Amino acid sequence: MKLLPLTLMALMLAAPAAAQTQPAPSPAPVEEPTNAKRSIWTLDVTGFRKQKATLGGYTKKWDLSDLPVYKPKRQVSGKLRIWGSNYLKDGPLGEYWSSEFRKFHPGIEFEFNLPTAGIAVPGVAGKVADLGVGRPATLMDHLTFEQVYKYPVTEITAATGSYDVYGWSPGFIILVHKDNPIEQISMKQLDGVFGTARNGGYDGSVYRNDYPFKRGADENIRTWGQLGATGEWANKPIHPCGQSPRANIQVVFQNLVLRGSDQWVEGYQAFANYATPEGTIASWSKQVLDFAEGDPQAICIASPLALGPNLKELAVQGFDGGPFVARTLESTRDRSYPLINEIFFYANKAPGQPMDPKVEEFLRFVLSQQGQEQIQREGRYTPLTAAVVKAQLAKLEPGAQ
Question: For 18, 69, 143, 332, which has the most beta carbons within 10 A of its beta carbon?
Answer without folding.
Answer: 332
